[in-house]
Amino acid sequence: MKLFTGLILCSLVLGGHSLFLSFLGEAYEGAKDMWRAYSDMKEANYKGADKYFHARGNYDAAQRGPGGVWAAEVISNARETIQGIYDQGPEDSKADQFANEWGRSGKDPNHFRPAGLPDKY
């Protein structure tokens, strides 16, 4: 009986460890997705495209799983907090957060895509 209990306990610990590692991997890949969207936004330097890149980064990260959703939410909230302090008003921050949540919820980021943005993005 002790052996059976020990095996069950070990499988639970190892299974939980595996889930934690999976979450961390998703979070890492999600953070990379967010960075890629930010880099593309800076490279494109296209007026009116910021909401598209917000939604796209969050969408791509969320597709990774719960860890990606977590990473996207943390990064988005931190970015909006920092930007709100320095250079944008509450209306723009609300619009950015709307685009962030749109993407994280799995909705198509192309909803925010401005006309004329190169296909590369």
TrEMBL record:
Domain of life: Eukaryota
PROSITE patterns for the chain: SAA (PS00992)
GO CC annotation, single: high-density lipoprotein particle
Keyword entries, A-Z: Acute phase, HDL, Signal
UniProt-annotated stretches for the region Disordered: 87-121
Region forming the signal peptide: 1-18
InterPro entries on file: Serum_amyloid_A, Synovial_Prolif_Regulator
Coiled coil stretches, renumbered: none
Pfam families attached to this UniProt entry: SAA
Single GO BP term: acute-phase response
Job description of the protein: Major acute phase reactant. Apolipoprotein of the HDL complex.
PANTHER family to which the protein is assigned, alphabetical: SERUM AMYLOID A, SERUM AMYLOID A-3 PROTEIN
Entry's family note: Belongs to the SAA family.
Name of the protein this chain belongs to: Serum amyloid A protein
Species annotation: Moschus moschiferus (Siberian musk deer)
